[in-house]
Amino acid sequence: MNRFDQIIRHPLFQETLRKIDDLEKDRVYCLHGFSHLLDVCRILYIEVLERNLAYGKDVAYAAGLLHDIGRLRQYEDGIPHERSGLLLAEQILTASGYEKQERRLVLRAIAQHRTADPQGEGLDALLYRADKRSRPCYFCRVQTFCHWPDERKNQTLIR
Ligand SMILES: [Fe+2]
Ligand SMILES: [Fe+2]
To answer: How many Å lie between the centroid of ligand 2 and the Cα of residue 62?
Structure first.
């Protein structure tokens, strides 16, 4: 089994996603459920392939799948999700067979997925771009109320 499949099957991953889904059931803005995570995995990995970068699919998908896992604690405790999800992400990565070096890379990307250099080449920048590109702002019904600045919405290029 692929290691990223093991992430998806991990009971803590599934339980956390179910709780996030419940908490977001009346949310009108972008959601953070499995569809979003899978979009980010695929868009990130498309860029890896297009640019011939050295990140493996297991690592690319781990970053996409786990980058918003901290949303649950953000909703519960107010701790920003790029930090509050790190412990849980590390636990799931370890249980899914990721090596120390890979865990460090993925965790750093998660920690920086909201602040990475938009033009960068590291996994953090790939994750940042994939996260933005995954959001179809063009046809969004709440576009005018969304907190995203207009220039960021316009930067979003769908893949
Ligand atoms: Fe996020
Ligand atoms: Fe996200």
So the answer is: 13
